[in-house]
Specification:
EC 2.1.1.14; seven-stranded parallel sheet; metal-binding; about 775 residues; binds zinc ion; binds glutamine; 2 domains; transferase; TIM Barrel; Cobalamin-indep_Met_synthase; alpha/beta; zinc; six-stranded parallel sheet
Length: about 775
Amino acid sequence: MSTPFPTASILGYPRIGGDRELKFALEKFWSHKASGEELAATAQGLRETRTRRLSSLGLTKPGSIPEDFSYYDQVLDLVCAFGATPERFAPEREVLAQSEPESPEALAAQFTIARGEGDRAALGLTKWFDSNYHYLVPEIGPDTVFEYLGAPRVAAAKTLGEAVRPVLVGPITFLLLSRAAEGAPEGFRPFDRLDDVLPAYLALVDELKAAGAQWVEFDEPALVSDRWSIPREEILAALRHAYTTLSKEAERPQYLVALSYGHAADAVDVLAETPVEAIHIDTVRGRWPEDEELSRWSESLRGRSLVIGAISGRNIWRADLGEAFEQLTRVQRRLGEGVHVSVSTSTSLQHVPHDVERETQLDPEIRSWLAFADQKVTESVTLARGLSEGKEAIARELSDNAAVLESRRRHPGVHREDIREKTAAVTDEDRHRAPYPERLAAQEKALGLPPLPTTTIGSFPQTSEIRQARAAHRRGELSTEDYVAAMKSEIEHVIRAQEEIGLDVLVHGEAERNDMVQYFAEHFEGFVTTVHGWVQSYGSRCTRPSILWGDVSRPEPVTVEWSGYAASLTDHAVKGMLTGPVTIMAWSFVREDIPWSEVGDQLGLVLRDEIRDLENAGVGVIQVDEPAIRELLPLRSTEEDEYLRWSVGSFRLATGGAKSETSIHTHLCYSDFATVVDAIDRLDADVTSVEASRSKMAVLPAIAAHGFDRQIGPGVWDIHSPRVPSVEEISGLISRATDALDPRQVWVNPDCGLKTRGWEETTATLRNLVEAAHEARQASSTSSK
Ligand code: GLN
Ligand code: ZN
C-alpha cells in the first residue's frame, strides 16, 4: 500500500506574490534595470515565503504544498525543460541546453520564447481552459526533439524540502494543448508524439526524486473537456499508456494526477488501471461522485487516495463547509477503509487573489463572505481535520461558516424584490428587435454612411496625462469638476483628431475608463472592487476582477454624459460604448447563489436602460462589446446550448429595446470566429467587428459559408504591434474582405481598441486606413459603372 496523500492540500497557489513582486521583478529584468541574479533571488524569495505561509496555514504533511511557481507560465516551463522549442528558437534552445535552469542566460532565453524578438514571433498565447489565465502554446512537429534539459522545479524542490510537491502539466494535456509546428505535414498531430515526450518526463521526475520529492502532481485538465478533434477512446488509451509508462521505475515519487476544471469520471476509471497513487477530481465545476461510482472505486482504488477538489479554485466565495463536509463523509463512507479520502481545491488557486484580509476598505460584512487563496487553504485544512478527527473537531468552524452564509443570504442587496420582478417579467419579445432589413433601411436613412464605412473599436491612446488625472481624482487630489473638465477636453481632442483623419463613425475614446469591466462595476450597484485583488492573466500581466455579489441595478446613467458630450461636438455619427453582460461576468468574480442566466438578465436590463438613455441623448450608434463570449463556452459540448441560450439571451435583452434606426454594433477580440459564428449570428447585432489582420482575414470563409447577412468589420490593423501598416497593405486586406463578402456588408476598422497604442502610430495608421477605404470605394464605384 502506498503512503496516503496528505488529507489537506491545494492543487496550486498564486505565483505573482501578494504585492505582485514577480510582476515587478520580471519587468525590471526585461527593461535591464535588474540582473538575472536579482530576478532569480526574488523568485526564490517568493517560493520560500509561500511555502512558509502555506505551512503556517496548516499544510504541514510531506507533499501537501504544491511547488508550482513559474517565472512566466507552466506550459512554457515544460517547453523549456524538454527543449521542445520551435525551429526559430534554435539559439535559445542551445542556451537552455548549455546553462543552468535559473541562470540569467536561461531566463533570458525563456523570455525570448515567451515574448518574441524582432521578426521571430513569440509562442501563441491562449486561454487556459475556461479561465482568464493564458498559457503559451507549444508548437510541436514531427521533428521536435524532446530532451530533458533541466528545470527550475528541481532546484526549488531541493531547497524547499519534502513538504513541497512539484507540479507539472501532465503529458496528455501538454500535447493536446500543443499546435502542429509550422511545416508539419497535413494531418500531423502533436498528440502522436506521446512516446517521445514520456522519456523527458521520466528524466525530470527522476531528478525531482533525487531532489527529495515524495509526491509529484500531474495536472491533466484536458481530460475534462471534450473539445478535441481526437476521439475520447484514443485519449483515454493514451492516458492509460502515459501513466503506466511513467510509473515503470521502481524508485519514483508517488503520483497525484489531477482532473481539474470539470468532471471526468471515465478518466478516473482509466487512471485506476495504472499504478498512480492518488487521483484528484473537481467536485465544484465537475460534480460529486455518485454512489455507484464510489462503490466501483472502493475496489479499483484500494490502497490509494481519492483527492476531492471541494473548494473552488475559481471563485472567491466562502465554501459551504457544512454541505461539503456532508458530501465528503458520504464519499468516505462509500469508499470504505481501503481508500484514503483527501481534501483539496477544484483547480489551482492561481485564479484567485492572495488574501482577503488585506481588503480593509471593503464593507466588513461583504468581506466576511469572501475567501481568497489563503482563506481557501484554511477551508481545505478545516474539512480535512473534520475527516480525520470527526465533525465535533470542526464544530465551531462549521457554525461560523453557517452564520456567514446566512448573513449573505439575508443581506437586502443579495435579493432585491424590485429587480427580481423585472427579470421575471422579461418576455421573449424583449429580446427581439424589428427584422434586420427594416432596421437596415432605417439606419441607412438615419446615418447616411458611405459604402465601406470607417470606424474604430472604442478606445484611443491612454496617455500618461489621462492616467494621472484619473489617479489624482481617485486620491481626492483633483476635484470632480476639474477631472470632468480634463476628460471633456480629452474627448474634444479625440473627436477633432478623428474628424481631421476623416473617419465616418467616431468614438469618444474611453479616456474615463480604467478598464472596460471595472468601470461599469464601479457604477452599478451589486458590485465591489478590491485594492489588492490581483490575479495573473499571463506572464507579468495581472487583472483585478470586480466582485459581483448582489442584484444589479444602475443608480444613474453611466456613459451618457461622456458620449452625449462627444455627440454634441460633431456632425458625424458618434458611437456609444458599452460592455456586454457576458464580458462583465467573464471578467469579474460572479455570485453563484443564483443561476448565471439570472445575473445575465439583470445586467441585460441595466444595459438596456443605458442604451435607451444614450438614444435619448442623440447617440445613434451603440456598440456593446462582447469579447469574452467565447471564453465562457463550456468545456463540455453538451452544456453549450444552455450556455448560448442565456449568454445570447442577455445580450439580446440589453439591445432588444433599441430603435430600428439605432445601429447596434458588437465587438469580439479573437479571430477564430468560426467556432462561434452561429452564436454571433444569434446576437443579431447590425455590425460585428472582429480581429482578423494577423490571420490575413482567415475568418472570412467561415463568415461567408455561414451566410451571415449583417454587416461585419474584419480588423485591418493589428493593434498589438506599434507597426504602421501601409495603404497598400490595408487595401489588400479590404479587397480580401470585399471579395469574400458582399461589399455592402463590409466595414473598415482596426482589430481592437487603441488604448495601448501611442498617438503617433494611431494617427498615421488611421490616415492610411481611411485612404485605403476611399480607394476601395472609388474602385468599386468605377467598376460597377
Ligand atoms: N471598446 C473597447 C476598446 O476599444 C474594446 C476592448 C476589447 O475588445 N477588449 O478598448
Ligand atoms: Zn477587442
